[in-house]
Amino acid sequence: TIGADFVACNCHKWLCGAKGSAFLYVAEPHRQHMRPLVASHGYLSGFSSAFAWTGLQDVGAYLSLDAALAFWRRMGPPAVRVRLHGLLDEATSLLTSSWRTSLPVPIDLLATMALVELPRIDTGTLRRDGA
User: Per-domain residue ranges for the chain?
Assistant: First the structure.
């Protein structure tokens, strides 16, 4: 047990998995109240089976999770975080220097995502017809 009643995770965002991969953890006492939105052949075969095949869907994203988790195990979370922060630093430096803008907080306070100030535009030069 992980000590939570429910956990939902977007795996492509937080585990470097394929787009569309995610998981939902439901603690045992709550599983009897959970039902999939679509009933399929596993509906009456237990919690996991009820959610396994809920119609036509591409399961490729889920099948990629083993590789994503193996990557995290092989590299180790600290090394992955350092690499992701380095990529963030490069990306924000490129954007802020190209746009002549800044970050609202120092890069050292950020982990893997950042807000970057957008460049100001002269709205007087915009045309309503889109041309």
Answer: 6-74, 76-121
